[in-house]
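User: Here's a structure from my thesis project, written as structure tokens. My advisor, Dr. K., wants to see whether a designed sequence matches the one we expressed. Can you design one independently, without my sequence as a hint?
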């Protein structure tokens, strides 16, 4: 009898002290959304103009583990100006838990903790078109940049179109030295005239050593990407550089293995400069012999791990003029 009373008393005292200990502990809050395991990283690089909707869906499917996966992910559209027109389109896609457009206009907003938290909880990030100079000035070396890189490191998708694609190469034509982007004839006439670059922004694994251009066929930009490539070599940035040039209404899909596939209506061009330019000087038209160019039509792929040893054609620029049609 006495033993039973002691046992009950001991049990009550134990619960009493457990309650005191629990009340004295600082409560821990669980995050509202737990980031699912992501199956990337992957990229969707758009050439501008009307978006390739299937390319955005591809990004979502890739990071959630396939089109038949039950996993859903958060999608963020990031831009420096504009509207939230992407939201309705993306929310209707398979595998989307949540979508929001963040308009981040300055460095103060890019360093906000609430924006940092939203971005790092995304599975897919898509940069809308706009002005790459604004993107770089407002976002580089901020908490936003750190959060975006964390999404990539966790296997997320990083996409973008037009300026939103151009900021993702290792070498970025930033368009900060002039009000309007440089035209091909201007660049070929003077490779140093109002042409500036940004480095050490995003350095994605399969886009190292590259410089991206968009609106390619429509705005006849082969000459200017040739100048961009020559400048990297002439300025001592790299011994070689690969231009990735994407037409409008076209996307380049880069999977987690570094295989790039062209989808949409147009083609992508891969332009390699692998030796020093013959003449690349301020105020003097460019001369560069034997760029290697791979033209990749929709549906075809290109291995960014190891450039193909065949399938390219050669084009040269002499005193600012093409030796023949480069397209």
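Assistant: Designed independently from the structure alone:
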């Amino acid at each position: 009898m006495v033993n039973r009373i002691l046992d009950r008393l001991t049990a009550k005292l134990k619960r009493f002290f457990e309650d005191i200990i629990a009340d004295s502990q600082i409560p821990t809050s669980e995050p509202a959304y737990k980031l699912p395991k992501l199956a990337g990283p992957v990229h969707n690089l758009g050439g501008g103009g009307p978006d390739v909707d299937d390319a955005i869906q591809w990004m979502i499917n890739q990071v959630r583990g396939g089109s038949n996966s039950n996993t859903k992910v958060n999608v963020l559209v990031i831009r420096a100006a504009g509207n939230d027109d992407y939201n309705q389109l993306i929310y209707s896609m398979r595998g989307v838990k949540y979508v929001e457009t963040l308009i981040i206009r300055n460095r103060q907003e890019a360093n906000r903790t609430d924006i940092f938290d939203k971005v790092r909880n995304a599975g897919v990030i898509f940069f809308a078109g706009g002005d790459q100079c604004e993107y770089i000035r407002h976002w580089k070396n901020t908490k936003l940049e750190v959060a975006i890189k964390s999404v990539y490191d966790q296997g997320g998708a990083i996409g973008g179109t037009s300026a939103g694609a151009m900021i993702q190469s290792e070498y970025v034509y930033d368009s900060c030295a002039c009000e309007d982007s440089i035209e091909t004839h201007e660049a070929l006439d003077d490779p140093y005239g109002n042409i500036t670059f940004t480095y050490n922004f995003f350095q994605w694994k399969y886009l190292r050593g590259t410089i991206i251009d968009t609106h390619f066929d429509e705005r006849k930009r082969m000459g200017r990407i040739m100048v961009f490539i020559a400048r990297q070599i002439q300025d001592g940035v790299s011994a070689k550089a690969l231009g990735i040039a994407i037409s409008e209404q076209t996307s380049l899909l880069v999977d987690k293995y570094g295989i790039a596939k062209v989808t949409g209506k147009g083609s992508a061009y891969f332009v390699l400069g692998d030796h020093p330019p013959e003449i690349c000087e301020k105020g003097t038209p460019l001369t560069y012999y034997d760029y290697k160019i791979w033209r990749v039509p929709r549906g075809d792929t290109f291995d960014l791990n190891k450039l193909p040893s065949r399938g390219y054609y050669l084009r040269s620029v002499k005193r600012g003029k093409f030796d023949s049609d480069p397209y």
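When you compare it with your expressed construct, this may help: DSSP finds eleven helices and 17 strands in the chain.
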